[in-house]
Request: fold
Amino acid sequence: MKLSTIINSKEKRVAITPETAAKYIKLGFDVVLPKRVGEPAGFSDSEYESAGAVVRDGEIADVTLYLCVKPFLSENMELSKGSYLIAMLSPFQNEEILKKLHLKGINPCALEKIPRITRAQSMDILSSQANIAGYRAVVEAMSEYCRVIPLMMTAAGTIRPARVLILGAGVAGLQAIATAKRMGARVSAFDVRRAAKEQVESLGATFVDVESDENGETVGGYAREMSEAYKKKQAEKLAEALKKSDIVISTAQIQGKPAPRLITKEMVYSMATGSVIVDMATETGGNCEVSEKDKKVNVNGVTVIGYTDFAGRVAYDSSQLFARNVFNFVSLMLKDGKLKLDTSDEIIQATLIK
Reply:
């Protein structure tokens, strides 16, 4: 069995680290990788070779498993027939391409579709990457904010702490809250899920509550789309909160649908000059009306950041976590040292694209 990867020049993270390469070899895989594949994440070819992997130039043939973070998807991808492509494949956005790959004898497995169950926690790439991304989003925002973050009391006077608002208290949002609190900011947060209030308050933040009987949580624990009546109340509450905020980190997503629009242009214009908005949802349309995917723009004196690679900006650590998640998933695909997919297993079944 041969295991390899595909290089995407826009992605700094890698799905195979020297640590996991050694583990795959112990499982019976031949690990063959393209030269310099790990350099953007901080891993050298010599580290992979020391772990037992083969590093080479040119085409790598007869591959059983391709492990990637986010490959550049095309229906014309030249992959070994019968191989498995295991990666973050954005299945809702790339459904047609993935189906065509499957028809060509390539088996795509979308890691985003791993179910959130106890048995799959060690494979949960969404949580591990969102954790890193939530941290980095706060770092990016604070590097753009031209004022002090914590409370400072000096002989020349007192500087108030920055007021940070987090929209969406999932994994990324909770990490953003924790990071902003560690920096000394005054933090508040909003989420449509009732269960989020306790989590937000346990981190020392204030919960922005919308008075409603609706609960925006699905059976799987994800946020769902709310009614128009709720959205109206939500907009009024958020408009009030944004006026008072110096930094806004927006992380809200709805699985399989465009990101909810939470921040209007009017709300952005109501914020003070020098304020910062980080929209972490631009890959699926964005939470902010004026944000632009993978760009930083200035709107009426407010810096609006729409990067989609927050986890990739901490590529070394995010690669370590991602690679361990993937190793645990691949281990599930093996039986008696051979690749034998148990399609009755709910984890494997959920990821397969047919």
